[in-house]
Each structure stands twice: as C-alpha cells, then as structure tokens.
Design goal:
This protein is an alpha+beta fold. It is 30% helix and 12% strand. The protein has 8 helices and 8 strands; from the N terminus they run ααααβββαββαβαββα. Keywords: DNA-binding, Nucleus, Transcription, Transcription regulation.
Length: 368
Amino acid sequence: MDMCSAATWDPNLLVELLTAGEEQIRQLEANLAEQSSFEICKALAHEIESTFKKAISMAKLGESPVCSNAITATNITNPDSPRSTNGSPRSETSDRVFKDQERREMTKKRKTLPRWSNQVRVSSGAGAEAPLDDGYSWRKYGQKDILGAVYPRGYYRCTHRITKGCLATKQVQRSDMDPTIFDVIYRGEHTCFLEKPMAAAPAPASQQTTGIQQNQQQHVAGEHQQPQQQDNQLLLSFQTNLKVKTEGLNMEEHDQKSTSFSFPSTPIGSLQPRNNFFTSPARMDNYFIDSFSPAFLSPTTSESNYFSVSPCGKSNPSTAFSYHHTAESEFTEIISTVTSATNSPIVDIDFMLEPGEFDAFDPISFFP
DNA sequence: GAGATTTGACCCTC
DNA sequence: GAGGGTCAAATCTC
C-alpha cells in the first residue's frame, strides 16, 4: 500500500487508508474469534500498524510539507528544494529518502508474512510459461535467472496490491528435473477479496493446469471472511463431485480392493466457518494439512507415492477431482512441501502415502 | 489509453 | 561481493 509514497496529499487516499485499517482490524477480530494461529494474528497486527502509520504520515503531510520525520530533516537541510507538483516542498532527495524508508519497512513487513509452497504439474501441452491459474489475479513484476537453475524464476504479486493493499506474492520456478512441474512459493495472504470476491473460476482450458492448487500452509482454515454465498456454491459442487480413490492399494484387510467415498451432502446452513475453504486455495490446503492424521502424512516413504490431485471431469475440472494413489503415473498435481530455512510457518511434510498408512485415513473424520 | 509484461538497475541479506 | 527480490521505465497488447 504505497499511498503515502505517492507523495501527494489526498484526503480521499487518507480515508482509503483508514478504511483499510478498519477492515484489517475486523479481519484480526475475526481471526481472534476463530482462534487462528498466532502467526496470522501477528501478521495482521503488523499490517494494521503499518496502515495506520501511513495514515498518520499522510495526515501530517496535509498539515506540514513533509511525509515523514526523515523527510523533515532533509527538507530542513534543503530549504530551497523545489516543490513537488502538488505544491508541497518535497525535494528529489526527500522523495528518495522517503522511498528508502518505505522500502525498508516493506522489507521488514514481508519477512513477517506467512509463506508456503506447492508444486504444480501441468500437462505436457501447456506452454513454456505455465500460467498456473489458482483463482487469484496475479501480475508479473519480475523475472530472474537463478543460480544453478535452468529456468528463470518468475515473480508475481496480486493485481490488487495498489488498489486494495493486498500484499500477496508468489514465485514460480520451473523444475529443472521435470519441466512440467512448477514450484510455486506463495507469500502473504490475500486481503483483496474482502472487498471483491475472488474469481474462483477453474483454470482456462488453454492453460491446461490439471489440478487444483495445494499448499502446505500451517495456518488453520477459515482465516478470511469470504463471501458466504460463493463459498457455499463452490463447496456444494465440490462436495458433490469429490471422490477419493485408493486403487492399487493393498487393501486386503478390507473387503474391497478399491474404495471411494464422496462428501456427505452437508446442509449449507449448517456449515461451520472452518468448512468454507474451497474458494481459497490456501484455505483448502490448510484444511488438508490440518485434517490428515500424522500417520497419513508420512514423509518416510521409500517408494514415493504422491498423493495427487487430478480432475476426473474435463467439463468442469474445478468441481470434480479424484485422488489417486500412484507411483509416478498420471498425477497432475504433486502435493509436497518446501521447508523454509527460516522460522516461517511452513510445514515440512511431503505429501506421500504408504499403502499401509492409508488405513489410518478416516474419510468421515477427514471431511466432517 | 489502460493494464500487463519485460528487463536492466537497484537494494538487501548473507 | 554474490545472489535473490523488487522497482520502475520501456514496451507490448487489447
């Protein structure tokens, strides 16, 4: 939210900032009510603090010719600085000082943002630069060749960053080993949907991303207040179509070799906030992580059987998925986890299955 | 013309 | 100083 860095005194911007702050407080209250993780609340608190700091700075800009204390000092030392276009005596130097300060604050702020990652496999027909439609609107702001990596890393941020102060970003890196796999690192939660419901439409066919986004964020589900109606519609369609197949598993202890289940048709009105996760990739993934039992999440597998997600209904890939237990065949989305070297809330769990471990999976408790 | 992408430069961290 | 992340001007696309 670079409203102040715009270097203009605009009452409307100030109101926008304060309104955004008010909204962030509501968000924090909601998270507190849902007893969300400490990290989420902490990140929100940082956002609120930053927002109000900017509002205060902007307010000061209105009553004084500067936007921050640092700039005040600069202006004192440069009394003859040319005025900016809006009439305030901000110099080029003070602009730079202010931007530097803003940048430092943003850098500090980004460190506090939650981070998680996933891997997405696209079909071989997909373009060289996989769009990886995850339901959010991203804008590419950079690309960088990474040392030791064959493919460059793309940097994306939320399209609504300026208009709504959404700080969510993601990095997309194509795998060296398998060009059809993209490592996606998400950073920061989307806050843009608070004002505008996100487009949770399925990936366009041309993009041929053949799976839903899965992440491994440690946070609990239901941390945002998304439009209820949209949630319910998506959840309903998802529940109707989602099945888990366990073909190929050693199910001798069971009466059948292949089992499947569907979501119970839960009355929408009875849904708890936690259940409304399907409109947000992060939320859904949180739910998966939170819901699997430790035995189900076994990273100690010798035969890497990815728990994969693939659409089983081409006509509507967003609402029909089957979960296959396969060695390496037709999985379309690998759920894995990348561990952060820092203390960021990333869960270091590979999403793999051992045939025997699947016994611990209880669909009833898994999908309450 | 507005919004998105590209790309060289800059800043920060280790 | 190297490498990663971001900025911002130039360019492209619709």
